[in-house]
Amino acid sequence: MLAEIITIGDEILIGQIVDTNSAWIGQQLNAIGAQVVQITSVRDDRRAIVEAFDEAFGRADLILVTGGLGPTKDDITKHTLADYFGTTLVRDQATYDHLEQWITSRGMRFNELNQHQADVPAGCTVLANRHGTAPGMWFDRAGKVLISMPGVPHEMKAIMTDEVLPRLQAHFQLDRIIHKTAITIGIPESELALRIAPWEEALPASLKLAYLPNPNNIRLRLSSYRGDSKQVTAEIDRQFALLRELIPQHFLGFETASVEQSVAEGLKERGETLSTAESCTGGAIAARLTAMAGASAYFLGGVVAYSNAVKTDVLGVQAEDLEQYGAVSQPVARQMAEGIRRLTGSTYALATTGIAGPDGGTPDKPVGTVWIALATPTETITEERHFWEPREQNIQRASSAAMDLLRKYLYENCS
Amino acid sequence: MLAEIITIGDEILIGQIVDTNSAWIGQQLNAIGAQVVQITSVRDDRRAIVEAFDEAFGRADLILVTGGLGPTKDDITKHTLADYFGTTLVRDQATYDHLEQWITSRGMRFNELNQHQADVPAGCTVLANRHGTAPGMWFDRAGKVLISMPGVPHEMKAIMTDEVLPRLQAHFQLDRIIHKTAITIGIPESELALRIAPWEEALPASLKLAYLPNPNNIRLRLSSYRGDSKQVTAEIDRQFALLRELIPQHFLGFETASVEQSVAEGLKERGETLSTAESCTGGAIAARLTAMAGASAYFLGGVVAYSNAVKTDVLGVQAEDLEQYGAVSQPVARQMAEGIRRLTGSTYALATTGIAGPDGGTPDKPVGTVWIALATPTETITEERHFWEPREQNIQRASSAAMDLLRKYLYENCS
Questions:
Q1: What's the sign of the alpha-carbon dihedral B360, B361, B363, B365?
Q2: Is the distance from CB of A134 to CB of A161 less than 8 angstroms?
Q3: Under an 8 A CB cutoff, do A13 and B38 touch?
Q4: Could you tell me if the ipTM is greater than 0.90?
Q5: Largest CB tally within 10 Å, which of A215, A311, B60, B66?
Q6: pTM of the entire structure?
Q7: Quick check: B210 and A13 CB within 8 A?
Q8: A96 touches B: beta carbon within 8 Å
Q9: Is the Cβ–Cβ distance between B311 and A277 less than 8 Å?
Q10: Closest Cα of chain B to A310: distance in Å?
Q11: Which chain A residues are within 8 Å of B48, Cβ to Cβ?
């Protein structure tokens, strides 16, 4: 079954927001065996919206639309939908009651604009929005389906999960598409490609390989678009087991596997703990660890040691070493890691000190120079790394590299 | 002049990556007066790519394409481009020389896959890629232009800035589109809409207003698509000045204005400093502050006090208060802020302690409950907030709310 996604909103076309909805919807559709063949973003413009609907109906069986359902005047999707399907807006009482409760319980006024959000095109199926004010709407047309949802990501996600996906599975006879993605870390794309070339050459024709690089890792995806799903899954697993043997130290796991997740799992399994002392990464390692629910089980806390005074006074870095070697140096990284480990009593500690850029580089220590340290109960390991990217990516890469140092240590020192 | 953006890659359609390129390109094109009318994402599939090219050439004068130029076999854009423009691949010596230098200077091997990246369709104009291995390519066709760039965001951005934008300005006679966006904070969308309704009603017909909500703020964009640019700019400025009078305490600034930027500017102007003590936000405030270049001028550092032991031992929170009131409480937030301020000697300190979710809520303190504290030289201000969202948004909102507390303090206590 072929699907398309249409996102509506001037703010997308002039680049004021990044469309993150489409990626999430694409993942969900794939998981139930629907193949997304196009994603289209159009303006808050009646003609552009209608044209996009027409073209998508020509190519696909299912069209998921997000955006343009807010309470304000620039959001025209609902009126356009009513016209498109030859109907008019009517008040939906269940939505009205939900809205009134939802808004007043938050201490806000149930004003006229909110009340209009209970109006929907007659004849559509209303999809309840647990997390917001604009409901989703399901339209049938000659065996095909168009679904409109609000653009606010967590509202759209709840409607998809609660209403859209179960109904789609019941409504369509779906093909079975299978994707599985292995996550690698610490090896550049072209080196990886050469290293695994014999494996890639020997892949069966029914499996399609894709390389997906990002600042933290290279992902390798195998896809199958037909065939018996049990056999295909087994073949994909067999191929990835062969791949893992080729690059054991670079193989992080599957799908959403990340270095922080890998570190979290390793620590939880061992009942061990971590703390952080961050200079150039400025809290990014702590933020990535604590973005995962349950981080308090293994993450005790950390210090963002941006100034030298915090490095000496809180972490106990020697002022002489700061003076002699500079803040971006092996001794300072080492003392930061050992200092925060002492302070928190954690099993391990990670430290970073470097020059994220764009300023602050010297011929000796150019922008992108980072010292990383891992303090363990028995030793402190340090590493010098060089990144060549803008500030944001340098911070991301340094954070990943620090966590990867711990991941490899946990892997090599199995308890 | 009408433009379209086409992003190529299966990884986009199955949702494995979020397309952030289109938003950035949209911003740049708008700034030079090109109007983006559609963004289309298609698979790594020759027919889908060719169809997207044909349709875009039918609607627009300029087509910017990203993706599918990597060194590996799944990237087919370059071959498809050669066929589409009826030509073949030839080696570009300047690109070859750059590649060899770029790769070997990074201690990597200049392998065959990298060498093939110097092959381009004959007749195109090569656009140098300072930051990577795949060059951009400019194709002319009957007065219209198609430009292909790699999908890696910082490589694409450098090619756009260095090569594409200056060439486009020289090549096209561009209309003048003007957008200006005001950023508000601390007021829900429907309340804002009612509060400013008289202003909105009185806007001239030539200006289009859009509401752009996100987890940190609501943005209001005024757009003009024609008219004398000096007059239009003056009228937009006049309208925003009126708006500012309606909501002075919620008006953050323009365009990319963010609460962290506003705090940073306020502190730099006053020569004052900040430190942070974060529990539920887990380093997100520090990470947002240090993501901005030059943060060391005002940000001394912080503590991520995830465990109670770090709260007591490092920040000096009273164990009795933790026991009596719990970690998520006014006294603990207050002592965290005062503790980090004492430890670092900063002018101000911000602290957060709360329940980000999804677990850890109680009837008394449900998920989303956050205490925020601001310690200043003369007083400590605390605030209890409730957010109703998933973990990630609760962390974002709590971070923004904490920084907004300082922003308002700086605004109300002008030196």
A1: positive
A2: no
A3: yes
A4: no
A5: B66
A6: 0.74
A7: no
A8: no
A9: no
A10: 6
A11: 37-38
B357 chain-A contacts, CB cut-off 8 A:
293
Best mutation target among A13, A30, A51, A312 (most B Cβ atoms within 10 Å) is: A13
- Mean pLDDT, residues A112-136: 90
Contacts of B395 in chain A (CB under 8 A): 290-291
Higher pLDDT pick, A211 / A106: A211
In terms of DSSP bridges, do strands B274-278 and A208-213 run parallel, antiparallel, or are they unpaired? Answer: unpaired
Q: Is the pLDDT of residue B16 over 90?
A: no
Q: Which B-chain residues 237-266 have CB contacts (< 8 A) with chain A?
A: none
Which of B36, B188, B392 has the CB atom closest to A291's CB atom? B392
Strand partners, A224: A178
pLDDT digits (tens, 9 = 90+) for B171-224: 887 666 788 999 999 888 888 999 999 999 999 998 989 887 776 788 899 988
Nearest CA-CA distance, residue B87 and chain A, Å = 26
Q: In this complex, is the C-beta atom of B313 within 8 Å of any C-beta atom belonging to chain A? A: yes
Kindly state the tokens that stand for A108: 């806000």
Query: Do A303 and B302 count as a contact with CB atoms less than 8 A apart?
Result: yes
**Cβ-Cβ contacts under 8 Å for A133 (sequence gap 6 or more):** A71, A99, A102, A103, A114, A117, B190
Q: How far apart are CA B385 and CA B45, in angstroms?
A: 49
- Those residues with Cβ within 8 angstroms of residue B80's Cβ, 6 or more apart along the chain or in another chain: B46, B49, B50, B68
pLDDT digits (tens, 9 = 90+) for B316-340: 999 999 999 999 999 999 999 999 9
CA B105, CA B99: separation in Å to the nearest integer?
A: 10
- The predicted-structure confidence for A312-330, as pLDDT tens digits, reads as follows 999 999 999 999 999 999 9
Q: For each of the domains in chain A, give its residue range(s) and CATH number, in order of start.
A: 2-171 (3.40.980.10), 178-254 (3.30.70.2860), 259-412 (3.90.950.20)
Q: Which residues pair with A251 in a beta bridge?
A: A184
Residue A175 confidence (pLDDT): 62
Size of interface A-B (CB pairs under 8 A): 336
Q: What integer is the mean pLDDT of A176-193? A: 86
